[in-house]
Amino acid sequence: MARPNLDALFNGKTVNMKLVIGDKNYSSWSMRPWVLMTHFGIPFEEVLIELGESATKDSILAFSASGKVPCLVTDEGFAVWDSLAIAETLAERFPQHALWPRDANARARARSVSAEMHSSFTDLRTNMTMAIRTSKPGGGATPGTLADIARIEALWSACLEACGGPFLFGDFTIADAMYAPVVMRFNTYAPKLSAQAAAYAARMTAEPAVAAWIEAARKETHRIEHDEPDA
Q1: pLDDT higher than 80, residue 27
Q2: Which of 5, 10, 146, 181 is the most exposed place for a label (fewest CB within 10 A)?
């Protein structure tokens, strides 16, 4: 799927915010706010810093005291780091967009599943690293990773059954952006998924903002050897 026309998407709005990210092939945390902002047409200037290089840390520190990506630099020059903090900041600043569900109970559940993604699934993160350009079906399938996948499938199932889809809370929200890198991992390692989870992963892969990120990741030439599962 072709990358969205960002000029048309942003309707000529002045771009004052900067989103500092890492390589699209590898940086799962960067993917979340980028996809979110692109989906909702929130204008930003992308600042991409290649990860794993000698100058990487200093380059990031020029924007964020955490030394990590992503970092959102607001139009006032204020730095917000961490994907979930950036998402919450965007939800506050752009209330015209339903970044969280409008319904209070659905919003509470969306925050819960997003926070669980933020703080959990260590085995999945460790054994199925995000590397969009690669394909390694069956890789990384440790017992701990499979348990993480089962929990993710249960979360997706509960959300999709409650709202009817097509995304976790009907329309695309922060919760979907938080799980977008999980879908990238599933695309790379091809674990066995339920029909419902596989269908959701396919819809996410085809979502225009996600597809644009994937397209850009495949065009990158920078390589981090230890993050390539087929190296």
Answers
A1: yes
A2: 5
